[in-house]
Every structure is written in C-alpha cells, then in structure tokens.
Design a protein that fits this description.
Blueprint (H helix, E strand, L loop, with lengths): L9 H8 L7 E2 L11 H9 L13 H11 L6 E4 L1 H13 L3 E6 L4 H8 L3 E6 L10 H5 L7 E5 L11 H14 L2 E5 L9 H4 L11 E6 L12 E5 L2 H10 L7 H10 L3 H23 L4 E3 L6 E6 L6 H6 L3 E2 L1 E2 L10 E5 L3 H16 L2
Parallel strand pairs: 1-11, 3-4, 3-5, 5-6, 6-7
Antiparallel strand pairs: 2-8, 7-8, 9-10, 10-13, 12-13
This protein binds pyridoxal-5'-phosphate (PLP).
Pyridoxal-5'-phosphate binds next to helix 4.
Pfam families: Aminotran_1_2 (PF00155)
Protein name: threonine-phosphate decarboxylase
EC number: 4.1.1.81
Length: 360
C-alpha cells in the first residue's frame, strides 16, 4: 500500500531545491506557530532521564490526565503514537465490511480502512455547495454501511458540523446499526470547541468513537501523541490487546500530562487564532482569482481560478511551502490549503501571492 503524501514535507521540498529546511516558511502543516509550550520544554529537560526506563505500558498517568481534561471515565480512553496510530488501530478493531468516508478527507482513513479489509465508499463533497456536508450525506446512510468516519473540522476543506448537526447523523447511524468515528484532531482550535465536541455524548452512545490529536495544537508533531474516547469498552480493550507495547515514548507520555494543564498556553493560542483567522482569510480572499473558504480551525482551504499556474511551485521559488490539494480524492490542482501562522509570516505569504499573481 502506497504511503500517502501529506503536508509538512519540508524535507522533500528543501532537498529538491538544494536549500536548508530552516530557510523554508512552511504553511503546509497545520501546526500552532506558538511552538512548544514552555511548561513542556522545562518538563522535558527535567525528565530527560525518564527515557532510561520503559514507559508504563498502561500509560496510567497520561490516561488520567486526558480523562480529567475531558471529565470522562478513564476506561473510555486509549492513547496512541499520534492520532494516526489510533486511526489504524481503530480501523483494525472495528471489522468494518462497508465504510463511508468523505471525499476529500484526511487520506489515512482510506488507507487504514482498506488495510483492515473494509470496502470504502465515498460521499463526494460538492464545490458548488462549498464542500459542506449536506442532506445528501444522510441519504448515503443505510444498513449496508457499518462504519462512517467524519473529520470535524474536515481536512483539508475546513468545513465544520456543529454538535446539533452531528447528533442528527449520530442518531441516524444508530437506527441503521452504523458505528460513527468523529475525528476531532483540530477541535481544540475551534472557538467553543469543547461545547461542540462529541465527547460529551459518550455516555449514551456506545457506537460513537472520537479521535483527538495533541500534535497540532501543542506543536509536537515530532513527539507524536493522540487518543480515542469511546464508551464501548470492548472495542477499546481490543485495541489495547492488539497494540504493540510502548508505542508512545516516555517523553511524549509526559507531554500529554503537562500540556493539558497549561491553561495559559491554551488561552494564548485561542487569542492568537481569534485575532488572525478572519484577517488572514479576508486578505486571501481579496486576491484576484482566489476563493477562500471561511476557516473554523487553524488552516484555510482555497481555490485559485484565474489561470493554470501551480501556486505551490511559484511560491517555492520564494522559499514558501503551501499544500497543493491535487492528490486528494475529488479535488484538483486548483485547490490549496495553508496553515494560519503568526502575523508577520501571514503577511509574507500574502505579499508573495500578490507578486506571483499580479506581477507575472
Ligand atoms: C483529520 C486528521 N486526523 C488525524 C491526523 C493525524 O494526526 P497525528 O499527527 O496526531 O497523527 C491529521 C493530520 O494531519 C488530520 O488532519
């Protein structure tokens, strides 16, 4: 099975151009520009010797910290080496025959479900409906389908379903005996995200599985940490029984315990995004040929419709990397995704885009 191409591959971009990674301004991976929380930096330095021991195979302290953060039962949590490990472990444990995912969506769902032997069906989001999940989606739900995956917000389109809309889908899934996986990897970035999260609905719905990532919000994609929350303890036990031991290293486990308590960092991130999100979106939308989709999280999806030019290639000559979405199912080379970064970086991208589009 081929490895999917993702954003964040600055290594490839730097090597192709013979430049250092540090020279590239990377908008292709959606990582919090505030960087590693100071609380975590200190904890990592102070606890560096923890790597001389094996991690706790049950990750009790980490699980306890996540359970306390969400106010849920510890038994409902399983942790992974990034959300990606959870995606593959969950797909392997759910034994789906026929699954339904969005097109486009995060590519690892298709890979994980195919690997687990599921036939993957797609709901093709429509450009003329701004890639929203519309009523047509519910018509795809039927007793033949046994598993639905929804990324909320969706990646790369950024479209978002509030809890009320997600509840309607959850209820309909229950009628047909369909399990619902909601990937909330970017939910921490959504304003009032915890009010919209489906984690609060766990108790009543044991066909619901929520996946979360700490990699993006806390700027630790290289450390890797994610988890699933579900009240179906049988499936969670199956995941734990099937997993390889110690897949999360000691420092990543410690990171989870530390960052979820760092209220100052969480507040600072929300304040930065609140200030930057709409401004950046409006600046982008004002450029001729660009249609940007209103962001809910920390990235913006847009199309470029003026000519056939590849904006990714053009921007790379200025050492700026954006995510071309041409390799997503149901998208073409006209579509791009960019991370929202700090003001000065965002200004650089806007200026570079204007030069590329207006001055050639
Ligand atoms: C929707 C979604 N889920 C999960 C992941 C994977 O997250 P992690 O880096 O924690 O494995 C990504 C990464 O981009 C994503 O977009």
């Amino acid at each position: 099975m081929k490895v999917a191409k993702h954003g964040g591959n600055i290594y490839e971009a730097a090597m192709e151009r013979g430049i250092a990674i540090e020279e590239i301004l990377d908008f292709s991976a959606n990582i919090n520009p505030l960087g590693i929380p100071n609380s975590l930096k200190e904890a990592l330095i102070q606890n560096i010797h923890s790597i001389e021991r094996y991690p706790d195979p049950d990750y009790k302290a980490l699980v306890g910290a996540i359970a306390a953060y969400h106010g849920v039962n510890e038994q409902w949590i399983t942790v992974g080496n990034g959300a990606t490990e959870i995606i593959f472990a969950l797909a392997a444990s759910l034994n789906s025959k026929n699954s339904l995912i969005l097109a486009p969506t995060f590519a690892e769902y298709e890979r994980a479900l195919l690997k687990a032997g599921s036939e993957v069906h797609y709901y093709y989001l429509k450009e003329d409906n701004d890639f929203q999940i519309d009523e047509g989606f519910k018509k795809m739900l039927n007793p033949e389908i046994d598993l639905v995956v929804l990324c909320n917000p969706n990646n790369p389109t950024g479209q978002f379903l509030n809890r009320q809309k997600m509840m309607e889908i959850l209820q309909q899934c229950r009628v047909f005996g369909i399990r619902l996986v909601v990937d909330e990897a970017f939910m921490d970035f959504v304003e009032a995200g915890e009010e919209e999260s489906m984690i609060a609905c766990m108790e009543e719905y044991n066909h619901l599985y929520v996946i979360r990532a700490l990699t993006k919000f806390f700027s630790i994609p290289g450390l890797r940490l994610g988890y699933a929350v579900a009240s179906n303890e049988n499936i969670l036990r199956r995941i734990r029984d099937n997993r390889e031991p110690w897949s999360i290293n000691s420092l990543a486990a410690l990171a989870g315990e530390v960052v979820l308590k760092d209220q100052a960092y969480i507040r600072e991130t929300k304040d930065w995004l609140h200030k930057e999100k709409n401004k950046f979106y409006e600046e982008l939308n004002a450029i001729e040929g660009i249609k940007a989709y209103k962001p809910e999280a920390n990235y913006i999806f847009f199309s470029y419709n003026k000519d056939e030019r590849c904006l990714k290639e053009a921007l790379l000559t200025k050492k700026i990397l954006i995510r071309s979405c041409g390799n997503y199912k149901n998208l073409t080379n006209r579509f791009y995704r960019i991370a929202i970064k700090d003001r000065s970086s965002n200004e650089k991208l806007i200026e570079a885009l204007k030069e590329v589009i207006y001055e050639s």
